[in-house]
Amino acid sequence: MSTNFSSLGVPEFICKALARQGIREPFEIQEKTIQEGLEGKDICGRAPTGSGKTLAFGIPLVVRTRASEPRNPQSLVLAPTRELAEQICNELRSFSGKRNIFVVYGGVGYGPQRKALSKGVDILVACPGRLEDLIEQGEVNLGAVQQVVIDEADRMADMGFMPAISRILDQTSNKRQTILFSATLDREVAQLKKRYQRDPVLHEVGERTPDITKATHTFMIAKKSEKSVAAAEAVKAIWPAIVFCRTRHGSDRLAKQLKRLGVDAEAIHGGKSQHQRRRALQNFTNGKAQTLVATDVAARGIHVDGVELVVHYDLPEDHKAYIHRSGRTARAGNEGIVFSIIQPEQRRTAKKMQSRLGISEAIHRIEPERLSELSPQVSRKSRAEKQLGQKSGEKSKSEKKTTHGESLKKRNGQKPKNRSKASHHKPKKKNSSNRNKKKTNNKHIKKHGSQKPKSDQNRNQNRKESSPKSSGRPNRKARRAHLQPTNR
Predict the structure, then answer these.
(1) 0.90 cut: is pTM over it?
(2) What CATH architecture does domain 210-375 belong to?
(3) For 438, phi and psi rounded to 5 degrees?
């Protein structure tokens, strides 16, 4: 007998909201943790990215949270990146009912966040850095927090957020419920569990390296000068793709190089504003961009389904970074390809990493243009249709431009360089009339025995020639100029 959300004790209004989204049966991690979460127990869960952790902690959070006072949230969710925090907030809102949910992170203005907190937020989703800023400013108080969720705890440790998390947790209620989810439970995560959880229930789901075992792993050896061309060929063979670089500057540089090589690329990293990151992610999700060029901040923070290829443009720092990056493809049982570009001097380092990951036998060398042979036939067909649609769209645009250019050419009798030059093709009569008008006025001035200085004449002449209202006839002031006395 299959388990449903109702049998786990989930309220009817949440079950209906999930059913409207097509979610009727819980995933394994949800089935194991929701009931205990509803009972208020501390939970420590190890589960891979994309296994349904948001619902696993989100449903108990929504059910147990009560209405909050201004600036005093009842529940808190901590996430390592802006994208992940925003995704959690949106997912919780989809079934939260009357509960008010808001997200705070850096890279955007404080104004909207202060305003929302002053009105009252029941469940606050936050990145640690911005949350501490708002606490220092007196915009939020954590003393009333009864439920805390720490998502992607191992990624938080990698990014150096553990001291901030400790300071934040120390400000929450001593009777709080603490839920911790992570892909690994070693080192700093184990210390966090020991210090801040009371008799936690431990649940582990999936393999320890689930994100990479289902993908096809490939590599090529290339000199530094050849890497951008190799990356472009790989993306042209299979996309949508995510290309990982080590630095922000390297990501921006590679995105420009890929564009010059005919690949629609968007760069995304911590140095971009939130608006730029959101726009890049939206273009990638909608298929307007073939690839995202990203730093490791995107390895956990970006959750996009249907990524067919991950390219390690720069070799990862360690095997954990390889896992996090490669986990962007082969998600939810789908197939995917991981392609590493290795420089000749990096062979020994790459072999050690492959051995530690257990993929030494599975990984094989391949040329980037042949990657399409490893992709499923269905995805290749859909990708070809997508490319065909884009080409036809570009063709229709070019035909429109050609037709418009030919019509201008026929009308003006010459090749139009641009619209502004074509539109100013007939002003010679106006200029000639202005010159005639100028001569007439000068005769009147000489006749009356007076002449203005040359500088004044030039200034008036320039003003008359540049006047947009000039129509070949003197205006009212010019017509009356000869009637005015010359000596005042």
Answers:
(1) no
(2) 3-Layer(aba) Sandwich (3.40)
(3) -65, -40
